[in-house]
Amino acid sequence: MVLKDILSISGESGLFRFIAQGKNAIIVEHLESKKRSSAFASAKVSSLDEISVFTEKEDLSLSKVFDLIFDKENGGPAIDSKSDPDKLKKWFSEVLPEYDRDKVYVSDIKKICQWYNIMHELKLLVKEEPEKPEENTLAEKEKEAAEQTAEQKPEKAKAGTKKPAGTKKKEKTADTSGTKSGRKRSAPEGN
Length: 191
What we know:
By secondary structure, the chain is of the alpha+beta class.
């Protein structure tokens, strides 16, 4: 799921969308009520894009967990976040069997359900598109062309008439006390 710019603010109900960065705060919009407000630096603001769930192997991003819920529920809403704790744990273990039961609490499962249902209701659950193989080959071809161009540039510098940067002409040391020929003048006698 694409969770970019979706925020959770500690002490506030619901989810928010990032609007702009202010001097001492960020401007956010409540997803459900569409009211705009400021979230100051003292508020604990979390981007859903940066949240992950502990599993027995490695942490799984919230967007991937939302994908799993979407698949399990066939695009429908998740279980109600106010359900019985045992029912929530059972449901979440069906969604993500390898979640770490010691680190993921019922309160975390409730938040995940609540956030998923808010986004489902507002039709904001958009699956991330995997990159197409054609795009990869195109990007690789562009990279190869750039590398070839970079390799050809030094060869052109060798073939050209310009001197490479960093070389200096050998300077003749001049004796400032002598004449143009470099011989020292002798001081006139008798003066």
